[in-house]
Here is the input.
Amino acid sequence: MAKIVAIVTNAHERVGGGAPIFVEPDTEKRESTAFLLEKILDAIAHDMKNGSFILVDHRQE
Here is the structure.
């Protein structure tokens, strides 16, 4: 089962839930943060095309 492990966004008010949320107003910084977290968390960054990335752990446990 896939699990959202983090969110990187430009608008904190549009996201919620139990995952850590990183707010980055700048597009380049948001992408950089998402891709760095992708490596650190061993997850996959998915661009939602709305100013947000979700980092998902797709491993089966």
About this structure: The longest helix spans residues 27-41. The two ends are 8 Å apart (CA to CA).
